[in-house]
Write a sequence for this structure.
């Protein structure tokens, strides 16, 4: 059985105090904390190897270039992808925009249909809205029921007339608000069976920290991830693109580094995919830090971490269901008999009569960090008239004792606000 | 337990002043906090100069801070006969003082200023 206490000492921030109480960090879906192995990879890069890549012929330049390649290799392997399939970006939002501006600009035209779900993070909604506006295309949304389940089977059955026009399916593997898990392979297979030449984009920002990703074994064309949610540094992320798709795409950003030949009149781009999609100086330290995070997670094993997450989700649901003022939003159980894994990474709820911001503030006074707000899913909150919700989200260092402390603090809310 | 939540503040939000619609309003202003969905709607009856306020009421949904801040702000506007211009110049510290808050945290600043923002955005 996985013991989080064996790893807590690796995370320096977990020993600090907030409002005179030991920090209990339960806002991991927003960003995770970093182990010293990641922090050291960043400082070691700048203290020992800092030099631009692929340019000078000197020792530091060579070390930096090697580190750049080996880090990319490690990260791609972690996700079951090839190094050349990894396009480094700053974050998931940038990844979605990149797909819109490269693939979307050339493949979407008037009358085409883009299929999303109702629970998308704004980052997997707004870029598609603008693309649809530019192209005269249409967005369609797979409904989400009140238990947070995405009704994709029903949607497929009821949307037969639309299907010939569908060009793209874009969805979150795991919902940042409800924790809902999409049965990725099953859903993509069902869509592909009914829609020819379908392209699939998956927002994996919330899945990557908790589930084993097998990009090359899965039938998604694009899969976007962010390092900072999986123990890595902020400001670096990845857009995984199937090699056969990436080969057909024009570069998103053009200029330094990614060229073949430049004259004053015209330019041809590098044939090598990694070069072609690495415009300008890359974030080598960020990649090195992210690779260190992948090694850290690998050493424990994603299967084991997924089990730990499931046990925290189950325990939290159980504890919160004992507070009558609370209404859990999203799947009420981490697994269901019919569809297997249902909820990953987080538990969100509403507290009758108390606003999520006020709740968050009370928890903060106890040193407990949670997320309050609409978690960048305004349409979902509007649909079910949730003003704002509170979300507890997990990482490998979280313990049941911390959940107990959060639940105890929630018991005091009644007293503070007299509800 | 929590310095921020003095009893008067909670009372203010639970029983807000000048709450409700204004039958003869000539101007309706709305503002929303994009990070949590809190909203405030302000009903105004303005003088001919479109700046002086003859009467005001408001409605809203949200956290204790946003609702209590709008409540005390509406009372101050009426008591001191503040115009829209006066409100725009009102320092944040003044609203903090009205609520008995020493210094609002950055995460709650938008909550505190939601009502003021609704009044100012019209200009």
């Amino acid at each position: 059985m996985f013991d989080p206490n064996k790893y807590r000492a690796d995370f320096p921030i977990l020993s600090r105090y907030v409002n005179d109480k030991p920090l209990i960090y339960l806002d991991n879906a927003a960003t995770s904390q970093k182990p010293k192995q990641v922090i050291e990879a960043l400082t070691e890069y700048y203290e020992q190897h800092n030099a631009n890549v692929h340019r000078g012929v000197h020792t530091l330049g060579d070390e930096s270039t090697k580190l750049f390649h080996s880090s990319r290799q490690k990260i791609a392997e972690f996700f079951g992808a090839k190094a050349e399939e990894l396009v480094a970006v700053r974050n998931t939002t940038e990844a979605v925009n990149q797909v819109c501006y490269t693939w979307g600009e050339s493949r979407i035209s008037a009358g085409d249909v883009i299929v999303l779900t109702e629970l998308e993070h704004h980052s997997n909604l707004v870029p598609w809205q603008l693309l649809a506006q530019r192209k005269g295309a249409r967005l369609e949304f797979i409904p989400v029921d009140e238990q947070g389940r995405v009704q994709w089977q029903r949607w497929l059955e009821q949307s037969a007339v639309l299907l010939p026009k569908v060009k793209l399916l874009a969805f979150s593997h795991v919902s940042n608000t409800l924790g809902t898990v999409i049965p990725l392979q099953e859903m993509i297979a069902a869509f592909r069976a009914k829609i020819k030449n379908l392209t699939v984009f998956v927002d994996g920002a919330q899945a990557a920290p908790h589930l084993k990703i097998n990009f090359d074994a899965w039938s998604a064309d694009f899969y976007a991830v962010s390092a900072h949610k999986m123990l890595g540094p902020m400001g670096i992320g990845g857009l995984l693109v199937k090699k056969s798709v990436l080969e057909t795409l024009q570069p998103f950003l053009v200029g330094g580094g990614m060229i073949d030949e430049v004259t004053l009149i015209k330019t041809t781009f590098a044939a090598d995919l990694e070069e072609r999609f690495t415009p300008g100086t890359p974030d080598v330290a960020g990649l090195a830090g992210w690779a260190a995070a992948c090694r850290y997670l690998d050493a424990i094993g994603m299967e084991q971490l997924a089990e730990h997450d499931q046990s925290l989700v189950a325990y939290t649901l159980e504890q919160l269901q004992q507070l009558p003022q609370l209404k859990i939003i999203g799947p009420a159980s981490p697994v269901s008999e019919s569809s297997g894994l249902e909820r990953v990474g987080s538990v969100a709820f509403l507290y009758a009569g108390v606003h999520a911001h006020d709740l968050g503030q009370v928890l903060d006074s106890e040193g407990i960090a949670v997320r309050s707000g609409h978690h960048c899913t305004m349409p979902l909150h509007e649909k079910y008239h949730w003003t704002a919700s509170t979300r507890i989200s997990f990482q490998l260092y979280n313990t049941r004792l911390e959940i107990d402390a959060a639940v105890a603090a929630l018991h005091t809310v009644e007293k503070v606000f007299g509800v | 337990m929590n310095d921020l939540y003095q009893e008067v503040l909670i009372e203010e939000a639970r029983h807000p002043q000048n709450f409700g619609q204004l039958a003869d309003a000539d101007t309706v202003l709305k503002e929303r906090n994009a990070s949590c969905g809190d909203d405030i709607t302000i009903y105004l009856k303005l003088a001919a100069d479109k700046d002086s306020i003859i009467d005001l009421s408001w409605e809203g949904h949200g956290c204790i801070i946003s609702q209590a801040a709008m409540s005390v702000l509406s009372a101050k506007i009426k008591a001191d006969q503040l115009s829209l211009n006066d409100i725009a110049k009102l320092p944040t510290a003044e609203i903090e003082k009205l609520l008995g808050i020493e210094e609002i945290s950055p995460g709650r600043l938008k909550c505190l200023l939601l009502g003021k923002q609704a009044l100012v955005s019209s200009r």
